[in-house]
Every structure is written in C-alpha cells, then in structure tokens.
Write a structure and sequence with these properties.
Blueprint (H helix, E strand, L loop, with lengths): L6 E3 L6 E3 L2 H19 L2 E2 H8 L3 H13 L3 E6 L9 E5 L5 E7 L3 E8 L4 E8 L8 H15 L7 E8 L2 E2 L6 E2 L12 H9 L3 E5 H12 L8 E6 L3 E7 L2 E2 L32 H5 L1 H10 L7 H10 L4 H22 L3 E5 L1 H21 L5 E4 L6 H18 L4
Helix pairs in contact: 2-3, 4-5, 6-12, 8-9, 9-11, 10-11
Length: 402
C-alpha cells in the first residue's frame, strides 16, 4: 500500500499529520513543471488556474523555479484585454540526456535537452570494433553526439542504452546477446558509467520500442499491450497495467525461442538454428519464404517492401502473416492484451497491407482478438524509447525541489 505523499503518520498515535510546507512546495513545483512540459509556455494566471493555486502562490512558485534555473521567461501574451502577461517555459538548458541504440552493425546515439527536443544524432559502424574496445568506443560515440549538439563534455545527466538482450537482475549478466561481442563484462554497467561519465541504464531494445509507442506512438493511452519486433530476430515487449513486464530473470518477451507449430523444437537453445518462433518468422525464414514465392532480396525488410510493390507478392505476404499470427496467438492466449503493435523493419515495410493480413490471420485462430496496429513512432523506436527513459530519470532528479 502506497502512502499519500501529502500526509505522513505520527509514529506514536498513527494519525495522519499534514504534509510539511517543503513537501507541499515540492509537489506544487513538480505539478507546474509537468504542466509546462505538456502545454508549452504558460502565464502565472494559467498555471494558477490549472493547479488551483492562488496568484500569490503561483508567483512564488515561478520565482522559486526561475531562481533554481528550471524555468525561464519567454515573452508575453498578446491580444487579450488588460496588460500582457509574462510567459514561462521549462528551461531547456536545465539538463541533457543521451539515448543509445546498439545493434550488431552500429551504435546510434541521440542527445536531447530536458524538454525532450533532440539536439543531435550520431551513428557509428561497429564492424571494426575489437570486443575489448566496445565500452571505450561506445563512450566516444556518445561524446561525439554531445559535441555535435554544441554542449560541453560533462553536460549529460543520464544515459540509457538499448540492446538486444536483457540484464539478469540477480546476476547482472547480459543474456540473449551472443550476437553482440564486447557487451558481456561482469562489470558492464560500472565500466560504461566510468567511460561515459554519467549514470547508465541498460534496457532491452524491444522494451524501449514499447516505451516509445506508449509515449508518442500507436499505444498512447493504452495500458495493456504487446509489441512484436521483427527484423533480423524476433522479440516482444509486454506492458501490463502501464508497466513493462520484464520477468524474474529479465527475459520476458524473448519469444524468438518460443516453441510454435511449424517450427522445429530442439533440446539445446545454445545452437544456431535452435528452433522456435525465430525459425518461422526471423530474417532467414522470411528470405527463404520470399524466394519460394519468386522474390529475391538481401534482407527481410527489402523482401517485404518488394512484395508490397508487386501484385505477385500477395501470396508471400499472406503466408508471412500466417506465420506471424501463429506466434502472436500463443502470446495473446496468455497475456490477453488490449492491443498488439507491429514494429521493426519487417512489419514496418509491410505497412497497412501486412498489418491487415496479420490481424485477419490472428482473429481466425485466436479466441482473444486484440486490435493490431503498425508502429507510429518516426525514426528509430529504440532510440526514442531510450531518450524517453533517460528523460524520465533526469526529470525525477531535477524536478525534485525539496
């Protein structure tokens, strides 16, 4: 049970006591900052009406936040009756964060200010990285993005890294990431923090794609959904009651290993081609399916895009949709989500045509029939999610004014 932050209990009588003035000020400050982030520049009067604070209290609040460097004046209102009112916004320079997307071929970094505006991005190929230099070179890529943003080297407050694996919370070991050499040190987080110079969080890349969809994409306003990521590999993110479900060892959503009808079942998951959903709908399987339908391409994404543009591609898309639906039916029978989001290069290339086929195929074979949507996050969902997570952590620290 969570205690109301506005009250505290007497250690002797157990009766509620009024919140301290400093706590109430902190609550009001945080509410005003969140309103400024959500609505843009606001006047003292508007902040007062949205929060229920009196004009004198709203004035004191804004003076306090301005003195702390958290808000800045940005002009005045115009066109209304009476004198123009001063407008305030969250100070973009109050803090900066970085998001990192790690794949088997590159590291991509974005830097944003505390309001969420992306200032710079930098992409670094990793083909020639010796595994022993992975941490140092990742730190250099982050530093380059900071330079491109025109910021001092020590400007960042938080860094979140999205990676195709999951940290086991009991051991700190990065699991499901054999394809990423150089990311398996037992002191990985500590080494990254030392090299980058900020607190670092490591998060599964598909989980971060779900964070982005919930914040600014297809799952906005939805608290129970599953995101299926299909590209080189297959993965999923599960959101229940608005929160990511990671599982006991951090492996929730690693559905590439999930046994499904039509895919081989083997006894040793450490081997290549180890069966499961990956063998049915991962990139090698999609390319083989495309070739069987007369479509030749270098990647699954290219094969699907080619099929969408070709009248002869309908049979291939329908067969791929059936395969995706088989795995999704297993997931929804357990989770029963409100919504399914298709993300990653393969479904994105298929667009609305593939989405409709997947939804029809799923609804034929599954009792739960959630709506299926395409990703609505522009650019890299993983990078967007990493920035969202880094911003949430940085704001929690910065906006706590007690």
């Amino acid at each position: 049970m969570t205690e109301n932050p506005r009250t505290r209990r007497s250690p002797l009588a157990g009766t509620p006591l009024a919140g301290t003035p400093s706590l109430l000020r902190a609550i009001n400050d945080r509410a005003a900052l969140e309103l400024l982030l959500a609505h843009g520049p606001l006047s003292r009067t508007r902040i007062g009406s949205l929060t229920g604070l009196s004009k004198p209290t709203a004035s004191q609040l804004l003076a306090r936040l301005e003195a702390a460097g958290l808000v800045v004046p940005v002009g005045t209102t115009a066109g209304g009756p009476g004198p123009n009112a001063q407008l305030y916004q969250v100070n973009p320079a109050a803090g900066y964060v970085a998001g990192v997307d790690v794949t088997s071929t590159h590291v991509r970094v974005a830097v944003a200010d505390i309001t969420g505006v992306t200032l710079a991005e930098h992409r670094e190929p990793t083909a020639d990285w010796p595994p022993a230099e992975t941490v140092a070179r990742t730190a250099r890529a982050v530093a380059q993005a900071v330079r491109l943003a025109g910021l001092p080297a020590d400007a960042l407050r938080e860094t979140v890294i999205g990676i195709g694996g999951a940290l086991d919370p009991s051991t700190g070991e990065l699991r499901y990431a054999e394809h990423l050499p150089g990311w398996h040190s037992p002191r990985l987080i500590a080494e990254l923090e030392e090299a980058i110079g900020t607190p670092v969080s490591l998060e599964n890349d598909v989980n971060l794609a779900a964070v982005a969809e919930q914040a600014v994409g297809a799952a906005a306003g939805c608290e129970d959904f599953v995101l299926l990521w299909a590209e080189e590999g297959i993965g999923a993110a599960i959101v229940i009651a608005g929160r990511l479900h990671r599982g006991f060892t951090g492996g929730a959503g690693e559905v590439g290993y999930m046994p499904v009808p039509g895919a081989p079942v083997v006894d040793d998951l450490r081997k290549e081609g180890s069966g499961g959903f990956q063998e049915l709908a991962g990139e090698p399987a999609v390319l083989a399916l495309a070739e069987a339908h007369g479509l030749t391409a270098g990647t699954a994404e290219q094969a699907v895009a080619l099929a969408v543009e070709s009248p002869a591609g309908e049979a291939f898309l329908a067969a791929l949709a059936d395969r995706l639906a088989v795995g999704l039916a297993v997931i929804v029978s357990v989770v029963d989500p409100e919504l399914l989001v298709l993300s990653g290069g393969t479904p994105t290339a298929g667009g609305e045509r593939l989405r409709a086929l997947v939804q029809d195929a799923l609804h034929r074979i599954s009792i739960p029939r959630p709506e299926v949507r395409c990703s609505a996050v522009p650019g890299s969902p993983v990078l967007h999610g990493a920035l969202q997570r880094a911003l949430a952590t940085a704001r929690d620290a910065l906006f706590t004014t007690r």
